[in-house]
Amino acid sequence: MPRLKQRTVYLLAGIVAALVVVCAVLFNPGFQRSQLLKRASPAVDLLEIGRVHITPWSTELDDVTVHYQGGTFEVDSGRLRYGLLSLLWKKLTVREVLLQGVRADLTGFEPPEATTEPPPEEEPAGPFPGALASLDFGYGYVLDEVAVDADVQLPDGQSVAATV
């Protein structure tokens, strides 16, 4: 009987050690950065990320530059905090959106062509149709705190500076 207990202890210790190693790798900012670059880079012209750290309750980004369709989008520092447990009650709770040093140069931006036209009998989807589609399934959104500092360069020498 003592030998069975000893094997059980070794097995449990091995499982715990394996879980610690997996978590250490998955939550390592360097690993997350390489995976994000690997997965997101094909969708844009250029993607540069200084630092990224994703946890089950927050996402932090530093020194992000995206070139897409002739536009340049930059964020010096960004933090998104959320509560995933609220999904059990069909709510997406975003506790904080903090974006500092946001710059967008849209002087040469050419949006992609629409791939399909909606049927004429349907009503227009309104603003942010993809983001708000989950409302059709009974989900709700809760947004607690927003702090955004942005400068946007528009065509014809126009610009917008906004702080929210």
Write the layout of secondary structure elements.
Blueprint: H1 2-26, H2 29-40, E1 46-55, E2 58-68, E3 71-83, E4 91-105, H3 129-132, E5 140-153, E6 159-163
Parallel strand pairs: 4-5
Antiparallel strand pairs: 1-2, 2-3, 3-4, 5-6
Query: Could you tell me the strand content as a percent range?
Result: 35-45%
Largest sheet: 6 strands, mixed
Whole-angstrom Rg: 22 Å
C-alpha termini separation: 66 Å
Strands side by side in the biggest sheet: 1-2-3-4-5-6
Q: Which secondary-structure class do the elements indicate?
A: alpha+beta
Low-confidence region ranges: none
Q: Name the overall outline.
A: elongated
- Give the strand tally: 6
Descriptive key words:
6 strands, 25% helix, single chain, 164 residues, six-stranded mixed beta sheet, alpha+beta
Tell me what the structure shows.
- It is built from three helices and six strands, in the order H-H-E-E-E-E-H-E-E.
- It has helices spanning 2-26, 29-40, 129-132, and strands at 46-55, 58-68, 71-83, 91-105, 140-153, 159-163.
- Strand 4, helix 3 (129-132) and strand 5 form a beta-alpha-beta unit.
What's the short version?
25% of the residues lie in helices and 41% in strands. By secondary structure, it is of the alpha+beta class.
